[in-house]
Amino acid sequence: SAPKTLLEIKDLTSHYGRIQALHGISIEIKEGELVALVGANGAGKSTLLRTISGIQPMSGGSINFNGQDLAVVSADKRVFAGISQVPEGRQVFGPMSVEDNIRLGAYSRKDSAEIAADMEKMYDLFPILRQKCKQAAGTLSGGQQQMLAMARALMVRPKLLLLDEPSMGLAPLLIEEIFNVVKRLKKEGMTIFLVEQNAAQALSLADRGYVLETGHVVLSGPGKVLLNDDKVKAAYLGM
Ligand code: ATP
Question: Which residues form the signal peptide (predicted)?
């Protein structure tokens, strides 16, 4: 049977005071899909992710997740529902150990044996975090903090993983490492919404993509099709 729709956004609008950041966004993500969202600085990518996780209020339209209307669901309840976001700029807790940061991601769960098993999984996914598990998170490099933020988000056992610019500020080798993990998660069946300025890499990995411009979706389609679109090439791939 066809995969079911996990996230359905219709005519979504969002404002910062009187400034409208999202102008009627409609987006759909099916179970198991990796969907990329690309666009220039200020296009509204982070705003869209934050309306999904509930940190940013919506002013119109609807967000349906797993059959549930999110309009009346608070941000913390959305985590319980299975939405986990890796925020832009990582936001790990610097003075806390790597281990404690990862464990923090499991706060919505009570299954301690499975939490321990999932921590082992995170250390398999990101071996450097095992080596540094007792260190303060603030002492990690930018790339390692990105891995830590991803591990923390995965401890939720999310149905939908929201990744906001995971490659930002990282050296090419680390970017590759992060994208390899994204590939592996996809292979394991995780549904992922990936926001990236690094449009070429994001679209080549994605099943489908959306292009956002000043709060509007201006293009959508299979990742490979967008990658070969002349407008996308000119605007986002520097060609
Ligand atoms: P970036 O990659 O720079 O984060 P983005 O595509 O994620 O860009 P957003 O951060 O979502 O874009 O911003 C969308 C619009 O909303 C921009 O015009 C921005 O100036 C505005 N905006 C974002 N945050 C705020 C805020 N806290 N107050 C007022 N306006 C904001």
Answer: none
ipTM for the complex?
0.94
**Report field, pTM of the whole predicted structure over 0.90:** yes
Chain CA centroid to CA 55, Å: 14
pLDDT in tens, 62-87: 999 999 999 999 999 999 999 999 98
In the chain, the amino acid numbered 107 is Y
E-state strands within the chain: 5-16, 19-30, 34-38, 60-65, 68-69, 83-86, 160-164, 191-196, 208-213, 216-222
Query: How many angstroms separate the alpha carbon of residue 24 from the centre of ligand 1?
Result: 16
> For 90-146, how does the pLDDT look when each residue is reduced to its tens digit (9 = 90+)?
789 999 999 999 999 998 888 999 999 999 999 999 999 999 999 999 999 999 999
Report d(CA 96, CA 148) in Å as an integer: 12
CA distance 23 to 88: 22
Tell me if 50 CB under 6 Å of ligand 1. Answer: no
Task: Give yes or no for residue 46 CB within 6 A of ligand 1.
Answer: yes
